[in-house]
Write a structure and sequence with these properties.
With about 240 residues, the protein is mainly alpha-helical. The chain is built from 13 helices and 2 strands, in the order αααααααββαααααα.
């Protein structure tokens, strides 16, 4: 009896699939945000001005919270991506700068183009900006501000706006305002994309796998990790040799 021939299995190329998935996600998000999301509300510029200047009294508290949390996400990504970008063919800083105004719209192309750095040794910090972004107070500051914003939302969100509950008003704005709708989806997307950088950083620092669970807590988890993350044996060895 003839033995069946062994068939060699070719491993699926993970990186091209990841790049394609992230690229398609970016294209889909842009298309949805521009063409399929609710129309822009006539008072959008006025709302943005009020949010930016601290005139919050007439605004939904959870819109205020969401807007300010979106200002904290780029700090998290900057702390991770600027270090990660040193080992990439494409520089991270243009995408990080863009994320302060465009969120995931700006970050997704970088995440699609980068390669995983989980198995690469960490190099010692070589610039003032990176030294600042590696300070533990960056994570501490983001965590404290996140908790203060959440406290503001829960304490101020108990009343009514135009005769209806605060959450119902937020849902109405989500359904009718392109600005609120896209900003909400942007926050969710930034939360889901965090492991693409965070878990590589954990691997390079030889952090406990338990940090992966903590990091999934939106914004607060990554902030706690940045505040408490280990230095990493590889970084210590590299620094000792330099």
């Amino acid at each position: 009896m003839n033995k069946p021939k062994e068939v060699a299995l070719t491993p699926v190329p993970v990186r091209p699939l990841r790049q394609f998935a992230l690229g398609a996600l970016w294209l889909g998000f842009v298309t949805y945000g521009v063409l399929l999301s609710p129309p822009s509300a006539p008072d959008t510029l006025g709302v943005i001005l009020q949010l930016s200047t601290g005139q919050w009294a007439e605004l939904n508290p959870w819109v205020v919270v969401l807007f300010n949390l979106m200002g904290l996400w780029p700090v998290i990504y900057a702390s991770l991506a600027l270090d990660d970008g040193r080992d990439q063919a494409v520089p991270a800083w243009p995408f990080v700068v863009g994320s302060f105004g465009l969120g995931a719209f700006a970050l997704l192309p970088y995440l699609a183009l980068r390669k995983s750095t989980a198995t690469l040794p960490r190099e010692p910090v070589d610039s003032l900006l990176l030294r600042v972004m590696h300070r533990r107070w960056v994570g501490v500051g983001v965590a404290i501000l996140t908790l203060l914003l959440l406290a503001y939302g829960f304490t101020q969100g108990q009343g009514q706006i135009q005769g209806q509950g605060v959450w119902q008003d937020f849902l109405d704005q989500f359904s009718t305002s392109q600005f609120i709708h896209v900003m909400s989806l942007d926050f969710c997307l930034l939360t889901l994309l965090t492991p693409s950088l965070l878990w590589d950083d954990m691997a390079r620092r030889q952090a406990s796998p338990l940090w992966r669970g903590v990091s999934l807590l939106p914004l607060l988890g990554p902030a706690i990790y940045l505040a408490l993350r280990p230095t990493g044996a590889a970084a210590n060895v590299a620094a000792a040799k330099s």
